[in-house]
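Entry for the shared binder. Reason: the reviewer on the internal report wants the predicted structure included alongside the sequence.
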Amino acid sequence: MKQIVASLPSEWPTRASIMSTVETLVIGTAGGLVFLFAGLPGGLISGSMIAVAIAAIAGRQLTLPLILTQTVLVLLGISLGSVVSRHLLQQVSAYPVTIGLLALATFCSTFGSSYYLQRIHGWDRTSAFLAGSPGALSQITILAVERGANLPGIAVVQTLRVIILTAALPMVLAIAGVAPSVAPSLTTTIASPLDLVELAVASLAVALVLRLIRFPASWMFGAMIASSALHGAGWVEGGLPDWMRGMALVGIGALIGSRFARMRIKTLAGHINAALGSFTVAIAVSAIFVGIVALTTQVKFSDVVVAFAPGAMDAMLALALTLHIDPIFVGAHHLSRFVFVTIATPGIVHLFGRTQDDVDD
């Protein structure tokens, strides 16, 4: 319970923080609407992310407060859970094979990206391994600080990978003809006011329980689990109103784009080549495994692409929502990747990175 209380705001926001939040939301909404009306795939999340990122790089101090971020993640989780069906749940039998391949893809991608950063850009082994590790950015940051790694470089590599994937994946899938250029409506009906209240209460309850046990992405996955259970059991019909689901997508995009507000242009420019190169290596490795899964299983190609994309878990699930891609399959795989990275990365750094004595010296 102390952890939950500690995560809540301890004081009233200042006028400056309120104005910063409003500016972030206005810019994100404008960018999302421009992309949406232009008919671009994943328009709300991609447009919001790109608009906020550009403004942040230009020097605007854009941010979203913790309580608003948590609200956006809960709304996203409810929306994801509302598309649960028996057909999706029947596909669980295919997961062990694809998750095993995902684990192998994660390790190959990490080692490939880190080798590139070491050989081409002269990074030390610890920094290269941490930068090449896909996802779990908070854990990666803690390890980077503990091991004296190149924290600015790692932040640029990790952030640009998420930005590029979130912006490019919808267009790539649409051009390839395996995902609609404009996502169809995910639910045919809007839940009644009573059902919406039930969804909100159940989602918050499960999210708080997951947060107590330190489950990753607890706000989003807690809401997703609660919403899935209620919809799967037939206790709730319909989903969130379109405007509310759209608000969640814009919020996720703005959250990703606002990461550049803490990054200096000099730092970004100094590491952009390393970021783009390591991203190319990671995508090439992932593409090999996507091809293997697509050729050997009955899983839809678009589902495999988003599930194996080495991007942030919340961003990839938001894309699954907006592109009408199986959120259960994508969520299971990105959660598995998070667990792989969280468990394996400290061991990899210990075995292959600089020794702790070198760091202490």
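Summary line for the report: The CA atoms of residues 141 and 220 lie 21 Å apart.
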